[in-house]
Amino acid sequence: MTTYDADGITLQKVRDYVWEIPQEGEMRAPARVLASEQLLDEISDDKTLQQLKNATHLPGITKHAICMPDGHQGYGFPVGGVGALDAEDGCISPGAVGYDINCGVRMMTTNLSYEDVQGKEEELVEALFANVPSGLGGGGIVESGVDTVNEVLERGVEWAVEEGYGVEDDLRACEDEGRRPDADPSAISQKAKDRGKNQLGSLGSGNHFLEVQRVTDVFREGVADEFELEEDQIVVLIHCGSRGLGHQTCNDYLRKIEKTHSGLLNQLPDKELAAAPAGSQLAEEYYGAMCAAINFAWVNRQLIMHRTRRVFEKVFDRTWEQMEMHLLYDVAHNIAKKEQHTVDGDDKTLYVHRKGATRAFPAGHPEVPAAYRDVGQPIIIPGSMGAGSYVLRGGEHSMEETFGSTAHGAGRLMSRTQAKNEYWGGDVQDDLEEQEQIYVKAQSGATVAEEAPGVYKDVDEVVRVSDALGIGDKVARTFPVCNIKG
Questions:
Q1: What distance lies between CA 357 and its chain's CA centroid?
Q2: Is residue 400 part of a domain?
Q3: Nearest-5° angle of CA 12, CA 14, CA 20?
Q4: Is 365 annotated as a binding residue?
Q5: 332 φ/ψ sector (left φ>0, alpha ψ -120 to 50, else beta)
Q6: How many domains does the chain have?
Q7: Per the annotation, does 209 bind a ligand?
Q8: Is 389 marked within a binding site?
Q9: pLDDT band, very low/low/confident/very high, at 259 (cuts 50, 70, 90)
Q10: Residue 19 and residue 64: Cα distance in Å, rounded?
Q11: Which secondary structure element, helix H or strand E, spans residue 368, and what is its range?
């Protein structure tokens, strides 16, 4: 097959797993989809391809707009999308970052084996659910005033460590050491701060979760050794973002941009792509606000990790240090950062928008933490509750192919409404426990139904394509032991 047709859009096969929508009409660049034919069939089921094509109309789009193997329809810009926009002549788009700014995952390793946990699964899942806040609305580990929120927005994980919610090693294992220096707390509205102040240290709802996992497979032993991963080991995966603060911040700036930059908006095929021209006051304000929300999300995950360490101490009757509960890495999924990239031989400063996509810098890149610079940046790709997850490392072709990016998960196959019509939460929980020995605890059955394993694409196939393209290399695979959800 050399071409693929879907709803009036024709993609041309560039090579294995690389499909291109050629530049035409008002498009400022071509678009590329990185997928097998199986995944392409699923990606083309909704408006993903049209949204990707629409994204090429953004001023300053560089090289091509990209859809990852886990891509699906989002708000304006597809989830699984990467767009690098010129930071001098282009623009920045809140819709291409998403409402949950710095939604992401972090993985914590331990020296526990699966055998150590067997027989304690129910006690562990109940204790985690009782101690890690989840669900809609307020309630966090830290009940804070706005002054505290401002410190969190400014200083990120550095604040959490100083307050006793972490250790120095946690900073060294986090992207940017857990702090975006461009953060501007004053660019975050009071309404956003009020929404966030009582949510610090909470999972939220939807697809966010805390999952205890066991390592089932190791694919690259040397890299796994550097990541301190081995078969049968227990690890913990935390997936959440900036809660109501990030959502409100995205909404605030979308409305401001729609009013202030209506001329640019009218040039775009979808108002949900609303963007502020690079160098404009709103572009600078949004970037500062987004960086502050990034810091908030990092602290949110840090506090949840701190509470998880405390729960493990009680359940296993030893200190977290004795269990060697160390942060492996923290990866952002919804973010736009100013990065330096070489394009056609020229060094450019770009706003690299990753929406439902993961940074995947290769070995030797100066922004990879020193501990991993020789092997490449760790990448954590969660699957569904019944399919397991993966740890990858930045691939050697990621910079040239994807601006140093890869997929962020399995990617949805069906909407939440459809999922609730197809599945019953209690049945999903029972099946997972009886058939897979996976223990799930959630605020509601509806949440479990929305996140049933059948709702998602095949994460094994997503990762296979990433590995084959050399943008994210397989290191290890994990499988759920117990899971708590909002």
A1: 6
A2: yes
A3: 45
A4: no
A5: beta
A6: 1
A7: yes
A8: yes
A9: very high
A10: 12
A11: none
